[in-house]
Specification:
alpha/beta, 5-stranded parallel sheet, 2 domains, Rossmann fold, binds arginine, about 45% helix, Argininosuccinate synthetase, chain A, domain 2, about 20% strand, about 425 residues
C-alpha cells in the first residue's frame, strides 16, 4: 500500500481525514504532528491518530527550528503583513511542509496531506512549499476536496459512523491556529466587521482595561538582530518568546484586529494575539533606528514589505526570498544593543535604547554645551540644497506668475 504523511492537528477535520484518505485513495496514513508551541497534549493527539486508524503517528518538536529558521529571520527582516500581522501562522506552514517532506522521504511515502480548506492562504503555502521541496510528491487536501459534499453536519455524522471521537464540549465558534509567534482567530461573529471582537475571541491576553495599573518594564538584549536576553538573563529563543508572550499578554499587549487581503482574493477579518511578536518587533525597530543609517532604514522598510508578502503568499522557499534574506543579514551586522520596553494597559512603548554601535551621537545632537556640530557648514549646505528650487523659481515660475501649490503668487515687485 502506498503511504501518505498527513499533517495532523488532532482536530475534527484531520481526524476524519485519517479515515477518509484510505477510503478514497487506498493509501496508508502516517500522522505527523508538529509542535510549534501549540499548547496541546501532543502525546494524546498521537494516540488519537492511532486509535482512529493511522498506521503510524509521529510527533516532532519543531519549536527551536521554528524560532531559529523562521521566526527570528522574520523578526530581523521586520516582516509584518500589511503593517499589522506578524505572520505567525504563515511562518509555521513552510516548516510543517518541510517536515512533511522529510518524513515522507524517511517513510518512503508517495504523498503528503494537509487539512487546509480551499478558501485560505494555508493551502497555498503547503502546496507551493511541498512542490518546491519535493516536486514528485503528490499533495492531498481532503477538506478542500470534500468541500462540496461534506457539510459540518455530514462530517460529524461521518465521524460518528467511523468511531472518530467528536469533541463533546461545545466547540469554539472560531477557527483558531496557535504557535509560539502568535494566535490567529477567525470566523463566527468576527465575520461582521462592524462587531467588536468579543472577549471569547482572545485566549492569550487580558483586556487592556483589566491589565495592572502598574507598568512592567523589560530590557531586551539583541545580538545582530536576534533577541538573546531578557533583563540581563540569557535565554534560548523558545524560552524568551514564551516568557514575553506571558508577560506582555498579562498587560494586554499584542491584540491585533485586522481586515486583511488574502492571497486568494478575499478580504477577511482576523483577530490576532502576538504579545511577544509585537514587543520584539517594536524593540528591534527601535534598535535599528539607532544603528542603521537613514538610507539603510528606507531601503530596508521596502525589503521588509517584500519579505512580508513573500511569507504571507507562500513563497518562503523562493530564490527571491533567499536573495532578500542575504540583504537583511547584512543589515543586522550592527543591530546589537539593548532596548527597554514599558508594558502598560495594552501598550508596548520603547522607553530606552542603547547600542555600542549607535549612530546617535550626543555631541552632534545636543543643544547644550559640548555641541560639536559645525553650524557654519549648515549655511553652505543649505545654499546648495536649495539651489535647484531657487533656479527654477527664478527662471520659470516667478516670470510666469505661476502659483506654486495654488498659493497666491508672490509678486516680484512686492
Ligand atoms: N489569516 C492568517 C494567515 O493567512 C491566519 C490564518 C490562520 N487560520 C485560522 N484558523 N485563523 O496567515
Amino acid at each position: 500500500m502506498d503511504k501518505v504523511v498527513l499533517a495532523y492537528s488532532g482536530g475534527l477535520d484531520t481526524s476524519v481525514a485519517i479515515k477518509w484518505i484510505p477510503e478514497k485513495y487506498g493509501m496508508e496514513v502516517i500522522a505527523l504532528t508538529v509542535d510549534l508551541g501549540s499548547e496541546h497534549d501532543l502525546e494524546s493527539i498521537r494516540e488519537k491518530a492511532l486509535t482512529i486508524g493511522a498506521a503510524k503517528a509521529i510527533v516532532v518538536d519543531g519549536k527551536q527550528m521554528f524560532v531559529d529558521h523562521f521566526v527570528f529571520p522574520a523578526l530581523k527582516a521586520g516582516a509584518i503583513y500589511e503593517g499589522a500581522y506578524p505572520l505567525a501562522t504563515a511562518l509555521g506552514r513552510p516548516l510543517i511542509s518541510y517536515l512533511l517532506v522529510k518524513t515522507a522521504r524517511a517513510e518512503g511515502a508517495k504523498a503528503v496531506a494537509h487539512g487546509s480548506t480551499g478558501k485560505g492562504n494555508d493551502q497555498v503555502r503547503f502546496d507551493v512549499s511541498v512542490a518546491a521541496l519535493a516536486p514528485d510528491l503528490k499533495v492531498i487536501a481532503p477538506v478542500r476536496e470534500w468541500a462540496a459534499e461534506m457539510t459540518r453536519d455530514k462530517e460529524i455524522e461521518y465521524a460518528q459512523q467511523h468511531g472518530i471521537p467528536v469533541p463533546v464540549t461545545a466547540e469554539t465558534p472560531f477557527s483558531i491556529d496557535v504557535n509560539l509567534w502568535g494566535r490567529s482567530c477567525e470566523a463566527g461573529v468576527l465575520e461582521d466587521p462592524w462587531t467588536e471582537p468579543p472577549e471569547e475571541a482572545y485566549g492569550w491576553t487580558v483586556p487592556p482595561t483589566q491589565a495592572p495599573d502598574e507598568p512592567a518594564y523589560v530590557t531586551i538584549e539583541f545580538d545582530r538582530g536576534i533577541p538573546v536576553a531578557l533583563d540581563g538573563e540569557r535565554l534560548d529563543g523558545v524560552t524568551l518568546i514564551t516568557r514575553l508572550n506571558d508577560l506582555a499578554g498579562q498587560h494586554g499587549v499584542g491584540r491585533i484586529d485586522h481586515l486583511e487581503n488574502r492571497l486568494v482574493g478575499i478580504k477577511s477579518r482576523e483577530v490576532y494575539e502576538a504579545p511577544a511578536a509585537v514587543t520584539l518587533h517594536a524593540a528591534h525597530q527601535a534598535l535599528e533606528k539607532m544603528t542603521l543609517s537613514k538610507d539603510q532604514m528606507r531601503t530596508k522598510a521596502w525589503v521588509a514589505q517584500q519579505i512580508a508578502d513573500i511569507i504571507y503568499n507562500g513563497l518562503w522557499f523562493s530564490a527571491n526570498h533567499q536573495d532578500l534574506r542575504a540583504y537583511v543579514e547584512s543589515t543586522q551586522r550592527y543591530v546589537t544593543g539593548k532596548v527597554r520596553v514599558k508594558l502598560l494597559k495594552g501598550n508596548c512603548t520603547v522607553v530606552g535604547v542603547d547600542s555600542p554601535h549607535s549612530l546617535y551621537q550626543k555631541h552632534l545632537a545636543t543643544y547644550d554645551t559640548g555641541d560639536q556640530f559645525d553650524h557654519t557648514a549648515a549655511l553652505g549646505f543649505i545654499k546648495l540644497w536649495g539651489l535647484p528650487l531657487q533656479t527654477q523659481a527664478r527662471v520659470q515660475m516667478l516670470p510666469q506668475g505661476e502659483e506654486p501649490l495654488s498659493l497666491p503668487s508672490v509678486k516680484a515687485d512686492g
